[in-house]
Structures are given as structure tokens and as C-alpha cells.
Specification:
The chain is of the alpha/beta class. It is about 30% helix and about 25% strand. It contains 17 helices and 27 strands.
Length: about 550
């Protein structure tokens, strides 16, 4: 009888305990969690259920919740899933299928790579990306004389690192119908002594694109999956793809719905009058992993290709002011229609002339619109009088590693205007929020390079010793917000992600060191140990 009473008491205690302990999918304990909430609180434990954060606390919660998955972080740092606010996710995947020319130091080095690739693969078409003449001893644009000798009967298209120039051979130019008399606005067809050099800048590149074979669905899927794998390994859980065709957007949507793609994507529609009309009828797209409510508009070219439009000529090319990729008339058409649709307009703008027009145009168009969050992508070279035109409606989306990549030659292009360039702190002071990205594959994917460059304004070698225009660096808290909650805000998603708070998506990463406190020079060496999207571990360094 006594044993039965004891057994009954134990059962009663178990039942009562079970009533007080709630179930969860997973519980993480012993972590240093930067919540990035309004109070910038640091927590110790987090509970996940059904892809959301169920609880978070500065004490361990494994006794309060039952779960088959208890993760002991052993003091490691947890951050909200990182957001790259300006990148080319799909192109990153496509780039895995072409010859990597990043870091080449001369045209001859590129040619050696092409010869080796051609001998090993004998492809019908040779595609490459990543060259940058600013890294060469001879910093002038190359010509295609040697390409013509080596590949007289094969398409060769080599894309500059910034995506704003091609180097092609004459065989390719002929197929595209390009000759010495071809003219197209919105860019340049370069010549040497009256003859085509093989270099095309901005809009004329589209003539080459038309003769290249279209990617198959299977090739596109492989590219998207490859890009996702790379991004997860660096702790990116949301990417803002700055310019996608509607076919690619709908492919991404289908892959999300079949659970074959898990990364979250803020897709900017590549602007065209056709796409304006289509989405005016179709409307916005919003799913748990895909958000389509913005257009990517192309203002000017790049500084590296001297295609950015400047108010005064380039300091190292006094006859050149750069060229608009999109005419003023079309920019005005796009801004009017996009505003009427209730979509967001995100415009690539590098030069002070382009930016000056856009910030004024934006402010006029958005005067009576309450919360548009229109973006100037890059916001790179700014007239001092135009900083005040950034505000809560006109927002800067910048890439810190551009500053530390361009600093070796940007002053040659700009002269004294360099002091209005890459001015992230000045922009933040005007807009109160700033979004940070990489522009990959123009720059490397690694977001910890972004963090380091933002805070230290140095390249990976630690140059310059005192930082490039250090007065425009962001502090660590601002930088983290720019890669998380402010990035979410720029995407109209601040209520669902960007910080670790109850009810938000369980998007977070575990890293090997505390980037908020570690010696700054160690930040670029940060490793992602685990990446979670909606509570699911999608990357594990040890697997």
C-alpha cells in the first residue's frame, strides 16, 4: 500500500511538472546573444518553436521548456541572421560557372587563364568575370588585339569586376552587330585610333547579352543553390538581390514553396516599362521567404569604369563627365509610376550629378507619401549640399568595402570631391538609418569584411594605419544595426526579422568570437559556426 502511495505521488508530481513545462522545438543555452532590440539587450538563452522565437532571457531556459534539442553554445556569440542589403545573389551563383578573373594583375595573366581553360574544356563560349584594370601596372582600359589573335572564331566575353564593362573580341562584336559606327545612349563603345578596342561600358553591353545563349532552368536552379550555400556559410539569412527579371523571381518563388531554396530574398525587380506594366497589374509578392515590392533602377555607371556621372569632369580624364544609364525622362517616368503603384524605388547612383538629381526628384515625388523608404543604392559621391536631402523617406544603402577597395585610386578620379565620397557617418546623421551590403560578387561575400571596413575604414592588410577618412566610420553598434534591424527596416520587414525578439523569425547565427568586443583587426577572421533560418539549422561548420 505504501509503495502504491509513493508511485501515485511520483505520477502526480510528473504530471504537475509537465503542466508547468512548455514544449519547444529547440532551446539554446549559455550563449552571449546580441538581441539588437530597442534596448540593445544581451541575453543568455533563446527558445524556438514553429520557426519563431518563443522566449528569450538573460538566464538559461532549458528548465522551463521541454525540447529534444538543447544546444549549449558554451559562451559563443549569437547575432540575428545577417542581411546583405545590396548584392547580386543570382549572379553570384552564375559566376560559379565562369572563369574567375578576380585579383589578376595584368591582361597577360588573364590570357593565360583563358588559354588554360580553353585547352582543358574546349568550350563553345568563354565567359569570365572579375578583372579590374585599376589593379594593373597599366591602369588604362585593355584592348582586344591579343584576344583576337588567340580566339578568332569563338565568343569571348570578360566582365569587369563591377559588372559595368565587358572586354570582348572582334568575333563577338561582329556577331552582335557592333561596328565603328554603332551608337547607343547610356554608355560607351570604346575605340583606339578610330577602331573598336573591345571594351563596352554599361548600356552597349546589352547588345552582347542578346547573342549569349539563355540559361536553362536547371542551370538557373544550380546557380541559386550554389549562391545559397555560399551565403549560409557566411551567416547571411536574407539577401537583397539588386535587379532580377520576373522569370527568375517566379523561379525563386517556386523553389521556396517546394522547400528547395531556404534563404530569404528581398527581390528588386529590374526596371523596364514592360515590368512596370506587369507588376502594376500583378501587384506585390509577399511570402515568408520572398518579398517583391521594389524596382531596381539604374542611374549611372561605376566610378572604376568612369561611367558615374559627375557635376565636374573626372580629375584624371578632363573631357569625361560620365554618362547616365537611364535618361532623365525615363527616371522621371519610373519615379512617377513606381510611386503610384506603392512600390519602392531603389536607384543605383554613384556620381554626385546623378545623386543630386535623384534626391531632389525623390523628395518631390514622395512629398505626400507617408512611409515610402525609397533608396539610393551606393550613395557614393555626394555634393556637400545634398546630404541634407537624405531623410526618413530617402535612405542610403551603402557598401563599406567599396570605400576600402576604391581608396587606392578614387582620389585620382575625384580630386577634392573625395571628401564627399563614402561618407557613411554623414549619411547616417541625415537619414538616421543606413543599410549595409557588399554588392557581391563585385566585392567578396564575407559580411565580416563589411563589418571591419565600416568600423575601421581599412583594407584587410590594415591600410591605411589611421583609416580612410576615419571620421566617416560607423561604430560597432551602428554597423551591426546596419547589417540586421536597419536592413530589415529598409525592406519593410522590421516587425518580422532583424532582431531577436519574441514573435520574430528565428533567423540567427552562432559565431566563433564576439565581434562587438574583440580586437578590431581580428574581425575579418570571424567564422560562422552555425546558421539558422526559421529555427532550422541550414549550415554547420563541422558538417
Amino acid at each position: 500500500m505504501k509503495k502504491n502511495k509513493i508511485l501515485l505521488l511520483l505520477i502526480t508530481l510528473i504530471i504537475c511538472f509537465s503542466c508547468n513545462v512548455k514544449s519547444a522545438d529547440s532551446v539554446i543555452i549559455n550563449a552571449k546573444i546580441y538581441t539588437v532590440n530597442n534596448q540593445n539587450e544581451i541575453a543568455k538563452s533563446i527558445v524556438i518553436k514553429d520557426g519563431k522565437i518563443l522566449d528569450i532571457s538573460n538566464s538559461n531556459l532549458d528548465k522551463e521548456y521541454y525540447s529534444n534539442t538543447i544546444i549549449d553554445a558554451k559562451g559563443k556569440t549569437i547575432l540575428p541572421g545577417l542581411i546583405d542589403s545590396h548584392c547580386h545573389f543570382y549572379n553570384l551563383g552564375l559566376n560559379q560557372q565562369v572563369i574567375n578573373l578576380r585579383g589578376t594583375k595584368s591582361l597577360n595573366e588573364i590570357l593565360e587563364k583563358l588559354i588554360d581553360y580553353d585547352n582543358e574544356n574546349n568550350p563553345k563560349i568563354i565567359l569570365g568575370r572579375g578583372w579590374d584594370q585599376n589593379d594593373w601596372e597599366n591602369k588604362n582600359f585593355p584592348n582586344n588585339l591579343k584576344l583576337n589573335q588567340l580566339f578568332p572564331n569563338k565568343i569571348v566575353v570578360l566582365e569587369r569586376v563591377d559588372g559595368h564593362a565587358y572586354l570582348t573580341n572582334n568575333y563577338t562584336l561582329n556577331l552582335a552587330g557592333i561596328n565603328e559606327n554603332t551608337e547607343i545612349s547610356g554608355g560607351s563603345i570604346m575605340k583606339e585610333k578610330g577602331k573598336l578596342s573591345g571594351v563596352l561600358i554599361d548600356k552597349p553591353m546589352q547588345l552582347i547579352d542578346k547573342i549569349l545563349p539563355k540559361k536553362s532552368i536547371s542551370e538557373k536552379i544550380v546557380a541559386l543553390k550554389e549562391a545559397e550555400k555560399i551565403c549560409f556559410s557566411y551567416g547571411l539569412t536574407t539577401v537583397d538581390d539588386a535587379g532580377l527579371g520576373k522569370e527568375t523571381i517566379f523561379l525563386i518563388d517556386s523553389l521556396h514553396k517546394s522547400n528547395n531554396l531556404k534563404i530569404k530574398i528581398y527581390a528588386m525587380i529590374s526596371v523596364s516599362k514592360e515590368n512596370i506594366l506587369f507588376f502594376k497589374d500583378y501587384g506585390k509578392i509577399k511570402t515568408p521567404k520572398l518579398n517583391v515590392r521594389s524596382f531596381k533602377v539604374y542611374g549611372d555607371g561605376s566610378l572604376g569604369s568612369r561611367g558615374a556621372t559627375l557635376k565636374k569632369s573626372y580629375s584624371d580624364d578632363t573631357s569625361n563627365y560620365g554618362k547616365l544609364v537611364t535618361s532623365i525622362k525615363d527616371l522621371e517616368y519610373y519615379s512617377k509610376n513606381i510611386s503610384e503603384m506603392g512600390f519602392q524605388m531603389n536607384t543605383h547612383a554613384i556620381g554626385d550629378s546623378t545623386i543630386s538629381f535623384l534626391v531632389k526628384n525623390y523628395n518631390t515625388i514622395l512629398n505626400k507619401i507617408e512611409d515610402p523608404r525609397w533608396r539610393i543604392e551606393h550613395s557614393q559621391v555626394i555634393d556637400p549640399n545634398d546630404f541634407k536631402l537624405y531623410n526618413n523617406k530617402v535612405l542610403p544603402s551603402v557598401q563599406p568595402t567599396h570605400a576600402t577597395s576604391d581608396m587606392y585610386w578614387a582620389d585620382e578620379r575625384l580630386g577634392k570631391r573625395i571628401y564627399g565620397a563614402y561618407a557613411f557617418k554623414d549619411l547616417l546623421n541625415s537619414s538616421k538609418k543606413i543599410a549595409l551590403g557588399t554588392d557581391f560578387p563585385v566585392e567578396k561575400v564575407n559580411p565580416f569584411h563589411t563589418f571591419y571596413s565600416s568600423v575601421e575604414r581599412k583594407d584587410l592588410s590594415g591600410y591605411p594605419e589611421n583609416g580612410f577618412q576615419k571620421e566617416n566610420s560607423l561604430n560597432r553598434e551602428e554597423t551591426l544595426k546596419g547589417m540586421t534591424i536597419w536592413g530589415a527596416y529598409f525592406n519593410f520587414e522590421e516587425n518580422e526579422k532583424g532582431s531577436l525578439e519574441i514573435g520574430k523569425a528565428a533567423d540567427f547565427i552562432i559565431i566563433n568570437q564576439d565581434i562587438m568586443e574583440v580586437n578590431a583587426k581580428l574581425i575579418p577572421k570571424t567564422k560562422v559556426l552555425k546558421t539558422f533560418v526559421d529555427g532550422e539549422m541550414v549550415y554547420n561548420l563541422n558538417n
